[in-house]
Amino acid sequence: MIEEYKSQLPLSIFEDAQKELKNHKLTKKQEKEFFDKLLESYKSSRIDPGESIGVITAESFGEPGTQMTLNIFHFAGVVELNVTLGLPRLIEIFDARKEASTPSMEIYLDKQYNKDINAARKVAALIKETKFRELAQEFSINIAKLQIEATPNKKNMRDLRITDQILLKTLSESIKEVSVKQNKDGTIVLKPGKEIELKDLYKLKEKAKDTFIKGIPGVTQVLPIKQNNEFVILTSGSNLKEVFKLKEVDKSRSVSNDIFEVLKNLGVEAARQAIVNESLKVIQEQGLDVDIRHILFIADLMTASGTIKGITRSGITSEKESVLARASFETPIRHLIDASLVGEEDELTSVIENVIVNQPVPLGTGLPGLIARIKKLDGMKNG
Amino acid sequence: MEEFNILEHNFVPKHSVLNKKEIADLLKQFNISIRQLPRIFANDPVVKALNAEKGAVLKIVRKSKSAKEAIFYRVVVDA
């Protein structure tokens, strides 16, 4: 009997009620009465059709927004990574900017790696993008022999677990027409295959410095930290696709703060979740309190079209049917000119356009039209 | 190497494809046409993983902080 209420109530309320019922001995009849009351009070606490929830959400974000820090450069707690927080981050999320200003990832590790710091460092070394520049102490140009010489930094190479062989092989593969050799004293020599000018040798030197050796492209910084009894790697720079290829990573929990990257790799539902989590993080970090339903609503709205649309004139606002509604947001003249060029019509079905033309708005009690069904009178033939 | 199944990621809620009857019931329940449903692109990683075709309706059971479970629907459309 209780089951029929299950589909009508939210699961959390239903389960709480069931738990509570166990503490009291109720007859079947009382139980039914209890659930009927519960259902009634749930239904009466729902938002009514025609309620303008968008405005309420906007207010709920707007007021705490005035209290947020405007300073972009904040360091999250003890962590030395630079992460955009506060109002700038919130704007970035809701505008759906394609490029996050500080992309970063939170990489969880498999059980066998997340218990001690050394194992975590080992994985971190795999992830960090490493260029030749970081593995050599000194780059010099030997003018007499027209070649480039570099002294490897043994310590860095050991930390990043790169052997001389790997280094030589990667270098000769990625720089064309150059022979790579190692002298007996450990110096790495890059000699161009054919005679080149000194000017080009300088260019070659700069190119060699930027040669990608190993790691994940885009990840410029890695930081293993302890979080709830396990080691987690925070990164600066984001590349989820490559991280998912590593076997040491617990992929089901690893996330990026770049919402478009989540969209690309995990789909629109995951992106919605990312929007919720990221904005919640900002709000909580600032010590503010916004009801989660407002955040859920914005996230649903932004992802309803299958991709992420920001709350901007090029995003969800551009999808509004009414010309006047679009014009009332930003750049009104452009919208009006564009609309008049193609002869758009405005049906005045929504709120803002009715405010503009001074008519009752379809909100709350203004929403339903009244239809009266008049009983046919006796003797009338055509109703 | 084995590729990671994105359906196992914590951020990805449970998606399932509705059959014809379920779609009809859904549209009737909310009194809407299929075009009014929220969308999901055919090239979305989850749609690809499920092998859902264009026009299919996905039932999504999200974990929710306020209601524990929340059900959502999306129709598969061309990107």
What can you tell me about this protein's structure?
The complex is a heterodimer of chains A (383) and B (79). Chain A has helices at 3-6, 11-22, 28-44, 53-65, 86-94, 117-127, 132-135, 154-159, 164-174, 198-209, 240-243, 259-266, 268-285, 292-303, 323-327, 332-342, 351-356; strands at residues 73-75, 82-84, 104-108, 130-131, 136-142, 147-152, 178-182, 188-192, 212-214, 221-227, 230-236, 255-256. By secondary structure, chain A is of the alpha+beta class. Among the domains of chain A are: 3-44; 130-214, Aspartate Aminotransferase, domain 1 (Alpha-Beta Complex), CATH 3.90.1150. Chain A has a four-stranded antiparallel beta sheet with strand order 10-11-3-12. In chain A, strands 5-6-8-7 form a four-stranded antiparallel beta sheet. In chain A, strands 1-2 form a two-stranded antiparallel sheet. In chain A, helix 12 (259-266) packs antiparallel against helix 13 and helix 13 packs antiparallel against helix 14. Chain B has one domain: RPB5-like RNA polymerase subunit (Eukaryotic RPB6 RNA polymerase subunit), CATH 3.90.940. Chain B has helices at residues 20-30, 45-50, and strands at 14-17, 39-41, 57-64, 68-77. With 79 residues, chain B is an alpha+beta fold. The longest helix of chain B has 11 residues, at 20-30. In chain B, strands 1-3-4-2 form a four-stranded mixed beta sheet. Chains A and B meet through helix 2, helix 12, helix 13 and helix 14 of A and strand 2, helix 2, strand 3 and strand 4 of B.
Q: What's the shape of chain A? A: elongated
| Separate helix tally of chain A | 17
Output the CATH class name of the domain at 130-214 in chain A.
Answer: Alpha Beta
Number of strand elements of chain B: 4
Mean pLDDT of chain B: 91
CATH superfamily of chain B: RPB5-like RNA polymerase subunit
Sequence stretches where pLDDT stays below 50 over 5 or more residues of chain B: none
Q: How is the CATH topology of chain B named?
A: Eukaryotic RPB6 RNA polymerase subunit
> Major sheet of chain B: order of its strands?
1-3-4-2
The CATH C-level class name of chain B? Alpha Beta
Query: What is the CATH topology descriptor of the domain at 130-214 in chain A?
Result: Aspartate Aminotransferase, domain 1
- Strand fraction of chain B equals 25-35%
Secondary structure category of chain A: alpha+beta
> What is the total number of structural domains of chain B?
1
Shape of chain B: globular
Mean pLDDT of chain A equals 85
Largest sheet geometry of chain A: 4 strands, antiparallel
Strands in their spatial order, largest beta sheet of chain A: 10-11-3-12
Termini of chain B, distance in Å?
Answer: 30 Å
